[in-house]
Amino acid sequence: MTIPEAPPVFDKIYICLDACKRGFKEGCRSLLHLDGCFLKTYYMGWLLAAVPQDTNNQFYVVAYGVVRAETKDAWKWFLTNLQADIGDDANHGWNFISDQQKGLLPALKEVMPKARHRNCVMHMWKNFVNRFKDLYIREVVWECARCTTVAEFKDCMERLKAVNQGLGNTSPSLSQRHGSRLISRMGLRCYLMRRMVNHKRVLENHPGKLAPVQQKRMERLLTLGTKWTAEWVGDNERKMFEVSRKGSKVDVDLIKYTCSCNRWQLIGMPCTHALAAIVKRRDKTEDYVHPWLCMESIRRTYSHCIKPVPSAEFWPRTEYSQPEPPIIKRPIGRPKVHNR
Question: Which of 53, 220, 252, 333 would suit a FRET pair with 60, their CA atoms being 20 to 30 Å apart?
Fold first, then answer.
């Protein structure tokens, strides 16, 4: 029953801080992880969040909200607000990754019909662990997720089918890496502010062109690239190579930044085959890395800051505040003494 004079009841809230929104659009990749978690508080509810990764592979919260329950309507409301902040999917080409969140997929199709969606491999792997105790099956699941070509993915799926026929009902669209899960805690504005400040302090004096995590990945790939042999095919630009190792051959084009293994195109960093060709030319490996993985992108991501919010006692008075008490003027002189 509705009570007209009753105080307002909380329904839901959506928060997208300007610094987080601008940092995401200026320096992060167009991949967001959508997730929801139950709030173990007195009033309960669900925390919904949109979380991409920055250049250093750290989670970076763009928007979050609290709703009564995780439903299609709640996700539709959240995604509608998110689209108003970051722009529509048709112009920006957003990509989303999530677990099997209740009502998320139909809501995403209604709000952003052109956005691409993939399922989180980590959640899929946990389901495999709970259902299948075979360690071989668990490992093959991750091999499927790491495949970069359709042929490789089909080959891995055939290996799964050979073990259990029911495991073959999976499409290549599920071959994606896990995104970061947002912790369920309140005070998120202060938490995000401290986190952004900490990243700035750690990264502001980092030397080199690549972010720290990407630099370590480059060094690891360079070591693996020494096992491959690159041969120039004879083009005028001297940037097309055939790279081989133990009977395996791939084509590398340093002009188009492509390799027939498809890994370079997917991760934005030269694969082991491409690095073998780059080292053959004695070029700088950093020059062939996508700008998303460079320090310039991470500087743009953290070039904005979350503004401080004063406590309620310092807020300006509004028309709803209590009026100041009147000033009573007392006569000048000795006070009168009244006899009791």
Answer: 220
